[in-house]
Amino acid sequence: AQSVTQLDSQVPVFEEAPVELRCNYSSSVSVYLFWYVQYPNQGLQLLLKYLSGSTLVESINGFEAEFNKSQTSFHLRKPSVHISDTAEYFCAVTVSGGSYIPTFGRGTSLIVHP
Amino acid sequence: DSGVTQTPKHLITATGQRVTLRCSPRSGDLSVYWYQQSLDQGLQFLIQYYNGEERAKGNILERFSAQQFPDLHSELNLSSLELGDSALYFCASSVDGTTDNEQFFGPGTRLTVL
């Protein structure tokens, strides 16, 4: 079974600073990778996903994530964060052609200070 | 707004009681997922339905059950409630429930067991 590790439970940063939220997964087979964001008192929303092709994927609000197969990682980055990016971020993995059960990481709370 | 609706938004009940949580998926989505989110366990997958049939089961207790009706809405039944069942319960839907599908999450039902 696959597992997802988000090493940082909380990441505090100042506005306009760069940020990286780390995600590592364990799976020996081909996977699909997702980042979801959860704003306070809301459900999760898809931020971006990697299915195949280019290993660098981008979201519409400036986030990007890079799939690194050799390091089994899918870290999320943003060069300059805004106060409005304060939220909980979840990394998730599913196995290509496998079980439909998605595995989510424990989440990383991004706290952007003015 | 994800298009997924959940009722009720909040539910307060006592130990030993039974409750039903309701979910309506996005129009056109055939698959419904249920998740439990708590501070100590994180986001846990409970169960998935596809077009009325159970497709995958996760960490769902025997006291919990779910079903998906012909109109595709779903209900999660929680019985013999315990204090530890207090959590946010999310429903999500996807087009056909395959592993590369994005899931659309509802706003959640916050269950408090006293």
Q: What would a concise description of this structure say?
A:
Chain A is built from no helices and 12 strands. With 114 residues, chain A is mostly beta strands.
How would you characterize the overall build of this protein?
The complex is a heterodimer of chains A (114) and B (114). Chain A has 114 residues and is mainly beta. Chain A has strands spanning 3-5, 10-14, 19-21, 24-26, 31-38, 44-50, 56-58, 64-68, 73-78, 87-95, 103-104, 108-113. In chain A, the strands form three sheets. In chain A, strands 2, 5, 6, 10, 11 and 12 form a six-stranded mixed beta sheet that branches. In chain A, a hairpin with a 4-residue loop joins strand 8 (64-68) and strand 9 (73-78). By secondary structure, chain B is mostly beta strands. Chain B has strands spanning 5-7, 10-13, 19-24, 31-38, 42-50, 53-57, 64-68, 74-78, 87-94, 104-105, 109-113. In chain B, the strands form two sheets. In chain B, strands 2, 4, 5, 6, 9, 10 and 11 form a seven-stranded mixed beta sheet that branches. A four-stranded antiparallel beta sheet of chain B has the order 1-3-8-7, with no helix packed on it. Chain B is globular. The model of chain B has no long low-confidence stretch (mean pLDDT 93).
How does the SSE layout of this entry go?
The complex is a heterodimer of chains A (114) and B (114).
Chain A: E1 3-5, E2 10-14, E3 19-21, E4 24-26, E5 31-38, E6 44-50, E7 56-58, E8 64-68, E9 73-78, E10 87-95, E11 103-104, E12 108-113
Parallel strand pairs in A: 2-12
Antiparallel strand pairs in A: 1-4, 3-9, 5-6, 5-10, 7-8, 8-9, 10-11, 10-12
Chain B: E1 5-7, E2 10-13, E3 19-24, E4 31-38, E5 42-50, E6 53-57, E7 64-68, E8 74-78, E9 87-94, E10 104-105, E11 109-113
Parallel strand pairs in B: 2-11
Antiparallel strand pairs in B: 1-3, 3-8, 4-5, 4-9, 5-6, 7-8, 9-10, 9-11
